[in-house]
Amino acid sequence: AAQLKGRDLLALVDYTPEEIQYLIDFAIELKAKQEAGEVYHPLKGKTLGMIFEKSSTRTRVSFEVGMYQLGGHALFLSRNDLQIGRGEPIWDTGQVMSRYLDGIMIRTFGHKNVIDIARAATIPVINGLTDLSHPCQALADYQTIQEKKGPLKGLKIAYIGDGNNMAHSLMMGAAKLGMHIAVATPEGYEPDQEVTELSIEHAALNGGKVTLTHNPKEAVADADVIYTDVWASMGFEEEQAAREKAFADFQVDESLTELAKPDYLFMHCLPAHRGEEVSEGVIDGDNSVIYDQAENRLHAQKAILAALMG
Ligand code: CP
Ligand code: NVA
């Protein structure tokens, strides 16, 4: 854990399997502490700045509550109210913010914005979602899977839908943790090539497997977890109609989940569109753990905050 102090969390590729497993186990420990009513204030007197260029329910609330529970404070900073919205360079923003704050969480469009602010800042920077990745969500998700299924190594995840930020972070996480992830997307919506190649490389090192297909049935066969996400992510709303057509055969419904293990978990990072990427019966059914995932954002991010900023 000592080697996480002062680090950024921009993408899971930068973390070793041991570091990722440490954060998951630490999240579970912090969850137990919170449930027992134990006070734990390693971030007393520290402040996190949270820059949001996109909407958020879970990320905003869980980071803010997480900082409070750790004895610190969080500032919500919307792009429109910051001078970056009027063209102040990201370099100056990162430098100046480092003089006030102890950490920055940023949700933005291009992944390069996160890399640039991390370069400018002298304090830890945490990626709260970019078009390329969503590492905090993937950490909370792997925590959830471990809580429900035990040790992660060897488990199979089927990711069905868009080859987006969620797909990327789940792929890299699975690769690092020695899991098998099968990603089924329509043609033209495959995950990023560089992320795919890197995750295949890491999977090989860690005894995992990353496979891509255009056939959801093949991906779901024998899966322990079925994961899906919206067809049009934030920033891609104008493609909604075209995507509804392209993804028509990729809804996670009862006929698909039947092919997974009977005790499979259904997962979705939320927000969800019932009747599009997932049927109502599946997302609201007995196998669904969507609210546990959402809750674990709080615990996983507390682990991240305490490890990086403590
Ligand atoms: N899953 C997730 O990141 O949700 P928000 O967009 O509400 O933060
Ligand atoms: N892929 C979705 C995830 C939202 C948490 C998006 O980027 O909009």
From TrEMBL:
One Pfam family recorded for the sequence: OTCace_N
Domain Aspartate/ornithine carbamoyltransferase Asp/Orn-binding, residue spans: 153-307
Catalytic activity: carbamoyl phosphate + L-ornithine = L-citrulline + phosphate + H(+)
Protein location: Cytoplasm
Matching InterPro entries: Asp/Orn_carbamoyltranf_P-bd (IPR006132), Asp/Orn_carbamoylTrfase (IPR006130), Asp/Orn_carbamoylTrfase_sf (IPR036901), Asp_carbamoyltransf_Asp/Orn-bd (IPR006131), Orn/put_carbamltrans (IPR002292), OTCase_ArgI (IPR024904)
GO molecular function, one term: ornithine carbamoyltransferase activity
Pathway this chain belongs to: Amino-acid biosynthesis; L-arginine biosynthesis; L-arginine from L-ornithine and carbamoyl phosphate: step 1/3
Residues involved in carbamoyl phosphate binding: 56-59, 83, 107, 134-137, 269-270, 297
Positions bound to L-ornithine: 165, 229, 233-234
Keywords, comma-separated and alphabetical: Cytoplasm, Transferase
UniProt xrefs under NCBIfam families: orni_carb_tr (TIGR00658), PRK00779.1 (NF001986)
Family: Belongs to the aspartate/ornithine carbamoyltransferase superfamily. OTCase family.
Functional description taken from the UniProt entry: Reversibly catalyzes the transfer of the carbamoyl group from carbamoyl phosphate (CP) to the N(epsilon) atom of ornithine (ORN) to produce L-citrulline.
Protein name per UniProt: Ornithine carbamoyltransferase
Organism: Marinicrinis sediminis
Gene label: argF
